[in-house]
């Protein structure tokens, strides 16, 4: 084999290996704090099963103060009067007066402070969810005011808080066609701890848990094709879904929000699929009112 052929084969091998490495490189990770994707100068990554993020990400978590002391390489977190410290390069943290082991130490990388997200978020009382399907990390923590509103005896106030709770998801995303100017909300009658949101040819079902709402079922349907399914209020052919479909046994309260005029028709849908409209009111986005006759 001539030296020119060997050189050519070597170059080809290098190209293939480089291409394979590039193809195998993981996709970027999105960090979503209270429904807002946090921009980062340095890409988050996973190490030993722990998501590592730049310090500016955890500074977005509500309810805590996060500072960096460059001389001692110390991160200080204060929450409700309790102090938590981490030192770059050390696999322990101090919580109050106690030492806690860390799976991965915080570090300095090219001038950026990188920290273990879950440990700090948990220290802040936030929920952390890793969505492997979308390579997204959700950090969710409702404010004290929203949590208090969620506990209100006024059903409309409780529903407003539930829909405004920060959301997490373990489900994949769908390409939804929203060619309507409406938004529909459905609640089991007399309840505020679960709800559906429908827009275009997609529908999401959330359940409230702790200080967040979790997307537990998502579906895409063909509203041009009538079909029966387990949801009496959605008489269309479901073409794609993810998660566990809910079982609804009683009638639903609905709000049909017309976005151009910000008014909603509202009422009930019986288990036979029949809709009873009670009235029409002005309605701000995600802000509900009581429905007369609701039990």
UniProtKB/TrEMBL annotation:
Pfam families per record: Cu_amine_oxidN1 (PF07833)
Identification of the protein by name: Copper amine oxidase-like N-terminal domain-containing protein
Cleaved signal peptide residues: 1-24
Coiled coil: none
Keyword Metal-binding appears in the UniProt entry: no
Keywords carried by this UniProt record: Signal
Residue ranges occupied by any Copper amine oxidase-like N-terminal domain in the UniProt entry: 33-139
InterPro entries, alphabetized: Cu_amine_oxidase-like_N, Mao_N_sf
Source species: Paenibacillus graminis
